[in-house]
Amino acid sequence: MSAEAPVAPPKKSGKKMIIVIAMVILLGGGGAGAWYFMSLRNAAALAQLEEGGDTAHVAEPKKHDKTKKPIFTTLENFTVNLNDPGGMRMAQIGVTFEVEGTDTDIAIKDHLPVVRNRILLLISAKKIEDLLTLDGKNQLARQIQIATAQSIGVDIPMDDGVPDAAHGEGPGTDASHQVVAPVAVKAGKAASRKKPVTNPVKEVLFSTFIVQ
């Protein structure tokens, strides 16, 4: 009877085998679950990239272009007798242009005698009352802007913010102002164009403005 006792050990070995198989299944299931989870994340990320890729690109902050600086052209001050009875009223005005580019800056300097003549005629046609108000100063700036552009060969209509008196067709002007009139004929041709003309003289800035 005692010889039958050693038969028991094979049962313990079977239990170990079951445990090992269970662990393999558990690890395999965990790995499969992890793989499935990562697959879902990758699919979602890919879909978001395909649908919103352009939006994400637009949302990137734009880099400020520090290389493009404003270009200014400064003229010597104008000292002019105004169009007042007795000729006792004077104006001292400093003018600086903000221009579109270096080409415009060079063009103004190349045509400087013409530019200064046009501006002198514009100022000398003014009465002191015209230059004491903000509206009057703004109107003069607009007139100078257009007259300067015309002086360098840009066809811009004189009636765009400039009254007839600026080119010798209104009251308060004398024969000396008629030199501006031929430019008005050229400007009339520009007015008939369908495409508007961009003024390369972007702005007129007053650095000095004294009337007395």
Indicate the topology.
Blueprint: H1 9-58, E1 71-74, E2 78-81, E3 90-99, H2 102-110, H3 112-124, H4 128-132, H5 134-151, H6 181-191, E4 201-211
Antiparallel strand pairs: 1-3, 2-3, 3-4
Helix pairs in contact: 3-5
Descriptive terms for the model:
212 residues; alpha+beta; Tetrahydropterin Synthase, Chain A; 6 helices; 50% helix; rod-shaped
Give a verbal description of the structure.
By secondary structure, the protein is of the alpha+beta class. It has two domains: 9-58; 71-211, Tetrahydropterin Synthase, Chain A, CATH 3.30.479. Helix content is 50%, strand content 14%. It contains six helices and four strands; from the N terminus they run H-E-E-E-H-H-H-H-H-E. Strands 1, 2, 3 and 4 form a four-stranded antiparallel β-sheet that branches. Strand 2 and strand 3 form a beta hairpin. Residues 163-187 have low confidence and may be disordered.
In short:
With 212 residues, this protein is of the alpha+beta class.
The domain tally reads 2
Query: In angstroms, what is the radius of gyration?
Result: 42 Å
Structural class: alpha+beta
Q: What does the main sheet amount to?
A: 4 strands, antiparallel
CATH topology of the largest domain: Tetrahydropterin Synthase, Chain A
Number of helices: 6
Mind telling me which CATH architecture of the largest domain this is?
Answer: 2-Layer Sandwich
Q: In sequence order, what are the helices and strands, one letter per element?
A: HEEEHHHHHE
